[in-house]
Design goal:
The protein has 280 residues and is an alpha/beta fold. Helix content is 42%, strand content 19%. Strands 1, 2, 3, 4, 5, 6, 7 and 8 form an 8-stranded mixed beta sheet that branches.
Length: 280
């Protein structure tokens, strides 16, 4: 009886020790993410957009940890890079899969890539960033196959569809599947088009139907495991004269109805979490 009581006591102590260890680890990671989002290195202009982009809640939903290998697809000017690069610098790996620039191609892409490379060269937080290239049909090997814990894409799906149609969508999602480890997660944030709208809206508006994005990911082999309304905006009808670019920050109509669009804020967005199965 005494021996039984002693064993039970040891088991309880071990459970407490394990739980404490796991919780401590979680808090360390949580603090690291909070510190990265709250860093003074982020400009005031970037911080103003947190109201609509919810970076801490979004990255927590995608379960981003400082010791992971993460690729961000098309980071542009580096809004999320300014959070992810320092977060992953010491323990993880951050791939910035930037624009694919070819001779005679877009001058905008070249300037954006050059500016990002300058940031990498001059900012210590970016000293370990791996800058690679991504294009939905021309540059798909943005990270070694099976090497990533997470692939993240923020408001890019419409660009692939508008530029390369269904072919671009299919090859993009297939490349994400290839790059991820089994059990790895694909996180997608995209401007959300109501399911009741005609599919034609997707070709020019900058908005995509959630059903379309989910189907594309599933076609590549992913399983949808969670959705979040963290980036939803019920004030956005998704039907605007200049598409999603009517809203801030673009405000393509200039002064026309600007107060109206500022009151709406940035777009209504889906936030989707997919997993690459561990078995076929």
């Amino acid at each position: 009886m005494l021996m039984h009581t002693l064993v039970r006591s040891i088991q309880k102590s071990l459970k407490v020790l394990v739980c404490t260890s796991v919780l401590s680890s979680s808090f360390v990671f949580a603090d690291a993410l909070q510190d990265a989002v709250g860093s003074e290195a982020r400009s005031s202009a970037e911080r103003l957009r947190d109201e609509y982009r919810h970076p801490q809640q979004t990255l927590r939903f995608f379960d981003i940890q400082p010791n992971m290998a993460v690729a961000e697809i098309s980071p542009g000017g580096g809004w999320y890079s300014n959070i992810l690069a320092p977060l992953l610098k010491d323990q993880g790996t951050y791939y910035a899969a930037h624009f694919y620039v070819e001779e005679g191609g877009s001058d905008y892409y070249k300037k954006s890539l050059d500016a990002f490379k300058q940031k990498v060269a001059s900012n210590d937080n970016f000293s370990k960033v791996a800058v690679t290239a991504f294009h939905p049909t021309k540059a798909l090997d943005f990270a070694p196959a099976g090497s990533l814990d997470r692939v993240l894409t923020f408001r890019n799906v419409h660009n692939w569809y508008m530029g390369d149609g269904q072919t671009g969508i299919d090859s993009a999602f297939a490349s994400f599947f290839t790059a991820l480890k089994p059990g790895g997660v694909l996180g997608v944030v995209e401007h959300s088009l109501p399911e009741t709208y005609d599919d034609e809206f997707q070709k020019q508006s900058g908005y995509m139907k959630q059903s379309f994005v989910v189907a594309a990911a599933q076609k590549a082999g992913f399983i949808l495991i969670a959705t979040s309304d963290v980036n939803a905006n019920p004030l956005d009808s998704s039907n605007h004269e200049k598409g999603v670019w009517t809203l801030p920050p673009s405000l393509r109509l200039g002064d026309k109805d600007q107060a109206k669009y500022l009151a709406i804020g940035e777009s209504n967005r889906m936030t989707l979490k997919f997993i690459k199965p561990t078995t076929k």
